Automatic annotation (TrEMBL):
<dbReference type="InterPro" id="IPR029066">
    <property type="entry name" value="PLP-binding_barrel"/>
</dbReference>
<dbReference type="Pfam" id="PF02784">
    <property type="entry name" value="Orn_Arg_deC_N"/>
</dbReference>
<comment type="similarity">
    <text>Belongs to the Orn/Lys/Arg decarboxylase class-II family.</text>
</comment>
<dbReference type="InterPro" id="IPR002433">
    <property type="entry name" value="Orn_de-COase"/>
</dbReference>
<dbReference type="InterPro" id="IPR022644">
    <property type="entry name" value="De-COase2_N"/>
</dbReference>
<protein>
    <submittedName>
        <fullName>Type III PLP-dependent enzyme</fullName>
    </submittedName>
</protein>
<dbReference type="InterPro" id="IPR000183">
    <property type="entry name" value="Orn/DAP/Arg_de-COase"/>
</dbReference>
<keyword id="KW-0663">Pyridoxal phosphate</keyword>
<keyword id="KW-0456">Lyase</keyword>
<dbReference type="InterPro" id="IPR009006">
    <property type="entry name" value="Ala_racemase/Decarboxylase_C"/>
</dbReference>
<feature type="domain" description="Orn/DAP/Arg decarboxylase 2 N-terminal">
    <location>
        <begin position="36"/>
        <end position="271"/>
    </location>
</feature>
Length: 387
């Protein structure tokens, strides 16, 4: 096929995953943890002074957590279930942040009981709950950011608050006996516009300054969330370009008074480590002159490819056949007409593609298996193997 595989995988990693999968039943997801290791090391080398909090939601497989624990990563946790998983591999509580701004009171109490003392917030009600159930803890406030037009998977609106509210929350935190610790943002996942970090960082520096000057509150930390790119069909800049630009924004805004920097990468660490393998179930044309084939495969929106919703994430699909290629509509195996991954963006596939052939979905290590339904149409959840 007319695809440059080296843009997605090192040759040895590609061969290793493909060989390993050759005897496995499809659909399945194979993760090469060496790639996670490499991605983590690369990100740390670009931001040597930052603390990395891996966003567990991207891929909570045990070998991935074990590897990152060995590397002394920190962990961004969204629920008590994720908390159990990281504690089970030996992560210590001071390396954990409860990063979800939407949490039950009993869950805050559970985190506190387990020793977690760092919490995200974006509302007064949540902050009061933290003060009651996690007294004396450090809190950081999440602000709203721009950039939803340029992120493939935006995270704005639902999370974060405006600057004025952020300032009020930090003042209230102090009054409630909590430690007003910092500010966080997330510019949106798979953010293509590096400038989105510029406006977010400058908002944060403004909040730091106002709290210091007007309220004598010294914040210590800025959490820059995730948003770093993975390799999908549409190109992005490489991580070193992101890192150089963001470092420049940091220096321009904070000069000699740099706060502690936290990063919360999910997608960029694990997406490139994964390859989803599916099988073609059926190929058809809707009439004899139709320009496009419909290719139905045994993985779909409900079995791991949820991020194809609105065709947001455009995965590169590869098969072992050659010859003339033509765009195809790609759909999943269930009896639900929403189970169409790509109808506008039609991935190119060879005309020689046949029923029973395997399709290789590149860069699928993040936000796939965990999105998979447990029994829709009776299909089991996506099986994951780590090598
Ligand atoms: C609070 C928080 N931090 C970090 C991430 C990870 O972001 P990304 O996968 O873009 O690196 C997410 C993703 O949803 C998130 O909600």
């Amino acid at each position: 096929m007319n695809i440059d595989i080296s843009r997605f995988y090192a040759p040895d990693s590609f061969a290793k995953i493909k060989d390993f999968a050759s005897e496995l039943e499809t659909p399945c997801l194979v993760i090469d943890t060496d790639v996670v290791n490499k991605q983590y090391t690369e990100l740390s080398s670009h931001f040597p002074d930052a603390k990395i909090y891996y966003a567990v939601k991207a891929n909570p497989e045990k070998p991935v957590l074990e590897l990152l624990n060995q590397k002394r990563s920190n962990f961004d946790i969204a629920s008590t279930y994720e908390l159990e998983r990281v504690l089970a591999v030996g992560v210590t509580p001071e390396r954990i942040s409860f990063g979800n701004t939407i949490k039950k009171r009993k869950d805050i109490a559970y985190f506190y009981e387990k020793g977690i003392r760092l919490y995200a917030t974006d509302s007064k009600a949540d902050l009061r709950n933290i003060a009651e159930f996690a007294p004396g803890s450090k809190v950081y406030v999440r602000i709203l950011t721009e950039g939803s037009q340029t992120a493939d998977w935006p995270l704005s609106r639902k999370f974060g608050c405006q600057n004025d509210m952020a300032i009020d929350l930090m003042i209230l935190a102090k009054e409630l006996g909590l430690v007003p610790y910092g500010v966080s943002f997330h510019v949106g996942s798979q953010q293509r516009d590096i400038g989105a970090w510029d406006s977010a960082i400058s908002k944060v520096s403004h909040i730091f300054k106002r709290l210091q000057d007007e309220h004598d509150i010294t914040l210590k930390m800025m959490n820059m969330g995730g948003g770093f790119p993975a390799n999908y069909s549409s190109h992005t800049q490489s991580l070193d370009v992101y890192a150089a630009q963001i470092t420049h924004f940091l220096e321009a805004n904070f000069k000699d008074d740099m706060p502690e920097i936290f990063l919360e990468p999910g997608r960029s660490l694990v997406a490139p480590a994964g390859m989803l393998i599916s099988e073609v179930v059926l190929i058809s044309r809707k009439d004899k002159f139709a320009l496009h084939r419909w290719v139905y495969t045994d993985v779909g929106k409900f079995s791991g490819l949820a991020e194809t919703l609105d065709e947001s994430i455009k995965y590169t699909i590869y098969c072992d056949k050659d010859g003339e290629e033509e765009g195809a509509v790609i759909a999943g195996p269930t009896c639900d007409s929403a189970d169409i991954m790509y109808e506008n963006y039609k991935p190119m596939l060879p005309l020689t593609l046949d029923i029973g052939d395997r399709l290789y979905w590149f860069s699928t290590g993040a936000y796939t298996a965990t999105y998979s339904a447990i029994e829709f149409n009776g299909f089991p959840p996506l099986r994951t193997y780590c090598i």
